[in-house]
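Sorry to interrupt, but I need a hand with the structure work. I would like you to pick a protein and set down its sequence and fold. Please put the record directly below this note.
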Amino acid sequence: MKDEELELLAKKGVLEKYYSHVNKNPKSLLARFYGIFTVKIKFMKAINIIIMDNLMGEHREQISRVYDLKGSTFQRIANNVTNTKSVRKDLNFLEETEYRVHVDEELHKDLLRRMAKDKEFLKSCHLMDYSLLVVFFKSREGEQSSEGSRENSRTD
């Protein structure tokens, strides 16, 4: 983590606002931060480390596609896709039509509501970077299944 990011999160109050937001909105799609640390080893430059939720967890080997979606097509293609775990972008998602997410109307509304709350939180912090990490896993039968994951977002 860059010093500027640490300054923003820790010293300008964004972490306190974030903590309040995720407590009030436990189904928020934002990534979960667990801690921020500065590590200093003798004769080395200090480094800032952020501990976040592991979205792939024990199912990492079953991943068949990962997309980082921002809702834009401007320069949103990953050209160096080398394997199933390579992170693809919006244009890749639009091109790869075999990977789609189908949700019922109630879940669709719920996801939009959660994203709107997260957007308002980010806006209140004068932040604009938001993406939805969508991960497709191979099901036990070999078919594709998807799960939205936090930004960034699980749908649980």
Observations:
- Residues 137 and 148 are 11 Å apart (CA to CA).
- The helical segments are 3-11, 14-24, 90-95, 105-124.
- The first strand starts at residue 33 and ends at 39.
